[in-house]
Automatic annotation (TrEMBL):
<comment type="similarity">
    <text>Belongs to the DegT/DnrJ/EryC1 family.</text>
</comment>
<keyword id="KW-0808">Transferase</keyword>
<dbReference type="InterPro" id="IPR000653">
    <property type="entry name" value="DegT/StrS_aminotransferase"/>
</dbReference>
<keyword id="KW-0663">Pyridoxal phosphate</keyword>
<dbReference type="InterPro" id="IPR015421">
    <property type="entry name" value="PyrdxlP-dep_Trfase_major"/>
</dbReference>
<protein>
    <submittedName>
        <fullName>DegT/DnrJ/EryC1/StrS family aminotransferase</fullName>
    </submittedName>
</protein>
<dbReference type="InterPro" id="IPR015424">
    <property type="entry name" value="PyrdxlP-dep_Trfase"/>
</dbReference>
<dbReference type="Pfam" id="PF01041">
    <property type="entry name" value="DegT_DnrJ_EryC1"/>
</dbReference>
<keyword id="KW-0032">Aminotransferase</keyword>
<dbReference type="InterPro" id="IPR015422">
    <property type="entry name" value="PyrdxlP-dep_Trfase_small"/>
</dbReference>
<dbReference type="GO" id="GO:0008483">
    <property type="term" value="F:transaminase activity"/>
</dbReference>
């Protein structure tokens, strides 16, 4: 899409650092330079205010990535694009059948009602729960990682959705301030919410998480 739009050498493209490396890599492959902007802490997608602050004289485009089943604030991002003459491209997630989305929402609502000690995801009518991402409070990454290991030891699959933001990876390192991106990478944990989960499995998730209280001492 970038090449088809004429994006190349001398251009800068604003992208999120919270997520996969593929978007920044695609910008580089097109010959342009990726510029990282911070995310909205509720949606994990690009924050329109952060995008506007990152616009410079060489900025030509913005790549918006929808994350975990939540959509970015596309309307406001397009407004930013129009004000600065930028191309706004979107990278969506794979579509899920309606019946499966409905079951995920049902399981997500169950977790929302029963989980304690973790911050559950901000719900909205359009959330499809590709992932059910909670925040583990406490001392950042040490507590989150210790919490994840303890939950796994109780037979619950969970994973860290983004271990390292792209602006911290070799080849893309930038001296840029992205506090919400860093905080999300340190606190976020993805819990199961698949449509195939049984009531017993859902109860196991709740019991495992609530038994820990959501806050552990740092792991040494």
């Amino acid at each position: 899409m970038l090449r088809a739009a004429g994006i190349g050498h001398g251009d800068e493209v604003i992208v999120p650092a919270f997520g996969n490396i593929e978007v920044a890599a695609a910008v580089t492959e097109a010959g342009a330079t990726p510029v990282f902007a911070d995310i909205d802490p509720l949606t994990y997608c690009l924050d329109p205010f952060a995008v506007e602050a990152a616009v410079g004289p060489q900025t030509s485009a913005v790549v918006v990535v929808h994350r975990f089943g939540r959509s970015a604030d596309v309307a406001r991002l397009h407004e930013v694009g129009q004000r600065h003459g930028l191309l706004v491209l979107e990278q969506g997630e794979s579509e899920t059948p309606y019946a499966e989305v409905a079951q995920r929402r049902e399981r997500a609502a169950y977790l929302d009602r029963r989980l304690r000690g973790v911050r559950t995801p901000e719900g909205s009518g359009g959330h499809t729960y590709q992932q059910y991402v909670v925040r583990v409070p406490g001392n950042g990454r040490p507590d989150r990682d210790a919490f994840a290991r303890a939950v796994q030891a109780r037979g619950v699959e969970c994973r860290v959705p983004v271990k390292t933001p792209v602006h911290r990876m070799p080849g893309f390192r930038r001296d840029v301030c992205l506090p919400e991106t860093e905080r999300a990478a340190d606190e976020a944990l993805s819990l199961p919410v698949d449509a195939s989960l049984t009531k017993r499995e859902m109860n196991r998730i709740v019991s495992a998480c609530n038994a820990l209280g959501g806050l552990l001492q740092p792991a040494f």
